[in-house]
Write a structure and sequence with these properties.
The complex is a heterodimer. Chain A is mainly α. Chain A has 11 helices and 2 strands. Chain B is of the alpha+beta class. Chain B is built from 3 helices and 5 strands; from the N terminus they run H-E-E-E-E-E-H-H. Chain B has a 5-stranded antiparallel beta sheet. Classes of the chains: A mainly alpha, B alpha+beta.
């Protein structure tokens, strides 16, 4: 059973490239790898939580009111995560700041609750949340890397916000940032990079 | 099941879930809020200390402040605190918060430290929502741009200097993002003006 979730999450039903859900945070946030990883990990966490909260109560949720109930649960969980991170680690909160509340608006969370957790038992739902989130995280990281290199000439910019100031040396400056291609750093650049990724995925699928 | 029963069931389930989350949210809030507030104070203390680099003071900075009413120069919408750094009860420097409302997206909150001779010790961005990777180079976490203000004053710099190079000034800017630095420069300059015009406020 878990094999199916791995395949679906990472490739066949990839949230960012196949389902094309949650584009708003995906495109807006992926200016560099650090942001991609941060949003990705937070999304994985919320998706796992929301899937395992909905799955056990799935038989009690009335069909007609399921969407408001799902949103209520997701928004509540995200707020709890948001407050907890703010209290436990301020540097991490400052780095993730606006992205955590944004997860509520990420359609992929609601979509997986609706399409999977409300129809399957708890353990598979947990796997589904994890691997769907992981698939999205990979897309976020690739997008972040491409946009960072092309737009700014760096890799791992701001990585020290996530893992501490002593790791600032990890940031690599490939070329002077003023030579960067500004479009890549702006949302249209994200669209173009994303479409290139989708093209790649479809090419591979076609060859098979 | 009759139609009414379905409606009743729906309402009670939504209410129950709403109640569960209201309770867990309020518990989380109660538990996390003291920590969050403490984090904020620590962050502020660190920021104030850092910005006053090289200034000798011996008072409890976070608790020595005066309240500044909303005014045209600082553009603050509510009363804000201006912190006073003192040595043997003599004023060494003031830290004034200002808002640049005319950035690219949303308000930019800036903290500026001014020496008693009207010179800027340094400025820091406290909060902003400028485009990541584009307008956010004003942030000290992203680049050293904000340190350009160090040592500037209204006396030692003529008016045209308070502009970006694109407008024949002295400030660097990033192509495609000139609105943001213009807003910040303007706000810092107005902060100096405010200090100059309201010195008696700080000297009691």
């Amino acid at each position: 059973m878990i094999k199916e979730q791995i395949k679906d999450g990472l490739w066949k039903q990839n949230a960012g490239l196949v389902q094309l859900l949650g584009l708003c945070p995906t495109l807006a946030v992926t200016v560099n790898i650090t942001n991609g990883v941060a949003l990705g990990v937070a999304t994985i966490f919320v998706m796992m939580l929301s899937n395992i909260s909905i799955s056990p109560i799935r038989n009690y949720v009335p069909e007609s009111a399921r969407v408001p109930i799902f949103i209520l649960v997701i928004a509540g969980l995200v707020t709890i995560v948001d407050l907890s991170i703010n209290a436990l680690s301020k540097p991490l909160y400052d780095a993730l700041g606006i992205f955590i509340p944004l997860i509520v608006t990420n359609c992929i969370v609601l979509a997986r609750v609706e399409a999977f957790a409300s129809k399957n038992s708890t353990l598979p739902s947990l796997y589904d949340g994890f691997f769907m989130g992981l698939g999205l995280t990979f897309v976020l990281i690739i997008l972040g890397a491409v946009r960072e290199i092309v737009g700014n000439g760096t890799l791992f910019q701001n990585v020290h916000f996530l893992i501490g100031d002593k790791y600032e040396f990890l940031t690599i400056q490939l070329f002077d940032s003023s030579d960067g291609f500004l479009l890549a750093a702006l949302p249209p650049g994200a669209f173009i990079a994303l479409s290139a990724l989708i093209l790649f995925l479809n090419l591979v699928n076609q060859k098979r | 099941m009759s139609e009414y029963k379905v409606i009743l069931k729906t309402i009670s389930i939504i209410s129950l879930l709403g109640l569960i989350f209201a309770v867990s949210l309020s518990i989380t809030f109660e538990k996390s809020n003291p920590l969050i507030e403490q984090n904020k104070i620590e962050f502020k203390t660190k920021l104030l200390n850092e910005i006053l680099d090289g200034i000798d003071y011996d008072n409890d900075l976070v608790n020595t402040y005066i309240s500044v009413k909303p005014n045209e120069l600082l553009k603050n919408k509510t009363k804000t605190n201006a912190y006073l750094a003192k040595k043997n009860n003599i004023l060494q420097a003031v830290l004034i918060e200002s808002i640049a409302p005319d950035g690219y997206s949303g308000d930019i909150t800036i903290l500026t430290a001014i020496k008693s001779n009207d010179e800027i010790i340094g400025s820091r961005i406290i909060d902003h929502k400028e485009t990541p990777g584009l307008g956010d180079y004003i942030d000290q976490k992203k680049s050293t741009w904000i340190f350009n203000f160090n040592g500037m004053s209204l006396n030692n710099r003529a008016d045209p200097d308070w502009r970006v190079k694109k407008d024949q000034g002295t400030f660097d800017y990033k192509a495609g993002a000139t609105i943001t630095p213009r807003a910040v420069i303007n706000s810092v300059k107005n902060t100096l003006l405010f200090y100059k015009e309201n010195k008696e406020l700080f000297n009691d």
